[in-house]
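Problem 12. The chain below contains 70 residues. Write out its predicted structure in token notation.
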Amino acid sequence: MGVPTSQRVQKHRDSLRAAGMRLVQIWVPDTKREGFALECKRQSLLLANDPHEVDAQNWAQAVADTAGWK
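Solution.
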């Protein structure tokens, strides 16, 4: 039998720490949760004609590097 998974994970984490990395854990919305898509649509509609959002979208399009995209 091989090395237990927990030991392999710990070894990997130790090597990342030794390389100057640190673990960061975050909580994000569950995209599979019932109502998630509906809430996304609701929020999008709130921003649809917001002048600040229009400015932000125009800026993002102006500075985006899309060379080579199809």
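Discussion. The mean pLDDT is 94. Students who got a different answer should revisit the alignment rule from Section 12.3.
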